[in-house]
Amino acid sequence: MDAKDYTAKLIEHFQHPRNVGRIPRPDGVGVIGDPSCGDHLRIYIKVEGDRLKKIKFEVYGCPAAIATTSVLTEMALGKTLDEALKIRAQDVASELGGLSAMKMHCSNLGTAALYQAICLYRQRQSRGKKGTVLFVPHGTE
């Protein structure tokens, strides 16, 4: 994989990632890694009124992992939790102008970590409430 395989938008997000860092006392955290390539990331969220008020990430990975997570945070910020759960890996790849088949897994990592963070938040909010749906995996809704 070389630079000609990356879009201008992907390179921009790699060189100048948005929403990098931690959120003190986050409402939810999602952590995921891919042992086959070494990518590892965390997504932190702050929720206000069922909307993602703040979202940040830390990542150790390739340019595509950094860029896909950066653009995912921009796509999710301000959305309701249900809207954020509808963001698919393909949506992230499309937002960046496409990803090669070899790098498509990078966009899956970010969305999976975001789903984990939202699930953790909902789990914390639903303690003691019966009948609460925490998470609906893709393809089952």
Q: Which helices and strands appear, and what pairs or packs with what?
A:
Layout: H1 8-15, E1 28-34, E2 39-48, E3 51-60, H2 63-76, H3 81-85, H4 89-95, H5 104-126
Antiparallel strand pairs: 1-2, 2-3
Helix pairs in contact: 1-2, 2-5, 4-5
What does this structure look like?
The chain has 141 residues and is of the alpha+beta class. It has one domain: Alpha-Beta Complex (Sufe protein. Chain: A). Helices cover 40% and strands 19% of the residues. The protein contains 5 helices and 3 strands. It has a 3-stranded antiparallel sheet. A hairpin with a 4-residue loop joins strand 1 (28-34) and strand 2. Helix 4 packs across helix 5. Mean pLDDT is 86; it is low at 136-141.
What's this entry about, in short?
This protein has 141 residues and is of the alpha+beta class. The chain has 5 helices and 3 strands, in the order αβββαααα.
Q: What's the mean pLDDT score?
A: 86
Low-confidence stretches: 136-141
Residue fraction in strands: 15-25%
Q: Write the H/E string, N to C.
A: HEEEHHHH
Total individual domains: 1
Helix amount, in percent? Answer: 40-55%
CATH architectural type: Alpha-Beta Complex
Q: Helix/strand/pairing class, anyone?
A: alpha+beta
The CATH class is identified as: Alpha Beta
Number of continuous helical runs: 5
If you consult CATH, what is the topology? Sufe protein. Chain: A
Total beta strand runs: 3
Straight-line N-to-C gap: 36 Å
Strand order of the largest sheet: 1-2-3
